[in-house]
Design goal:
Strand 6 and strand 7 form a beta hairpin. The protein has 5 helices and 10 strands. 32% of the residues lie in helices and 22% in strands.
């Protein structure tokens, strides 16, 4: 059955333990769209055949006679849309954004990362061994500190950043806090089934659990300017041992100045 579905609606390779539900939702939506397409097409063909000129040579301007049926149908559609939005879409979004679908053990093991989007680059900030990010203040925003990190915050001492490439360990829950410094961007990783808007002024979390080592592309799924097409990055999924070696090499050494720029990069 899966082979038939993949042939009709091929999907990119899935490398996220929690991404199967996204695929299932996509299949359901497309099946629903197919039913609507076939139904409306059949109605359109029937209307053309039934009301062809030979059958009804004179147009009628009186309109529909039984308006009650039309009103009931329209009301039913509105109610169905409200039910889908309130009881399916919003709770589903909350579960994805809040990480409530993760178990308590998974949340304790999770690696939290800040995804900082800008025209036209991706910047990633990691918390140090303390697991805490430096505080941010709008009053601290400058050209050298565009994200407004507070260097006096003790949590800033072991934070570090990386531009263009997100390095994560395999089989580890990742919670990405998405934000933007200019316009609305969208953090999209197709193999992970991740697509989360990055909006100026707020931080929105999303999560995934990569289950296959490799290097996958990060794109922006929101039109964000003239060079939107060039806003690409990569996520590299490595073994846990390799990740710890990389993090040790990137983490600030005692006496180093804290990294306050959040990985800011000028687009060239």
């Amino acid at each position: 059955m899966n082979g038939i579905i993949d042939t009709i609606l091929p999907m990119p390779e899935l490398v996220n333990q929690t991404g199967g539900g996204v695929d299932g939702l996509i299949y359901i939506i497309h099946a629903f769209m197919a039913v609507l397409f076939v139904g409306w097409l059949a109605y359109y063909i029937l209307a053309i055949f039934k009301h062809r000129r030979v059958q009804t040579p004179k147009a009628s301007y009186s309109g529909i006679k039984n308006k009650k049926i039309s009103s009931v149908l329209e009301t039913g559609v509105v109610i169905a849309e409200v039910v889908i939005l309130v009881f399916i879409a919003l709770p589903g979004w909350y579960l994805m954004a809040s990480g409530e679908r993760l178990s308590e053990e998974q949340r304790q093991q999770a690696l939290e990362i800040q995804v900082n989007a800008q025209q036209f680059a991706w910047n990633f900030r990691y918390a140090g061994d303390d697991g805490r990010f430096a505080a941010q203040k709008t009053s601290l925003v400058t050209t050298t500190n565009p994200w407004g990190y507070d260097d006096t915050d003790p949590a800033a001492r072991d934070d570090f950043s990386n531009t263009g490439e997100l390095i994560v360990p395999v089989d580890t829950p990742i919670i990405a806090h998405c934000r933007s410094m200019d316009v609305i961007h969208s953090f999209a990783i197709k193999p992970m089934r991740v697509c989360q808007d990055c909006i100026p002024g707020i931080s929105i979390p999303t999560y995934f659990i990569p289950n296959k080592e490799g290097r996958y592309m990060i794109t922006c799924a929101q039109l964000c300017g003239g060079s939107h097409y060039a806003m690409k990055g990569f996520i590299k999924v490595v073994s846990k041992e390799e990740f710890e070696e990389w993090r040790s090499s990137k983490a600030p050494k005692p006496g180093d100045a804290p990294s306050s720029d959040g990985g800011f990069s000028e687009f060239e």
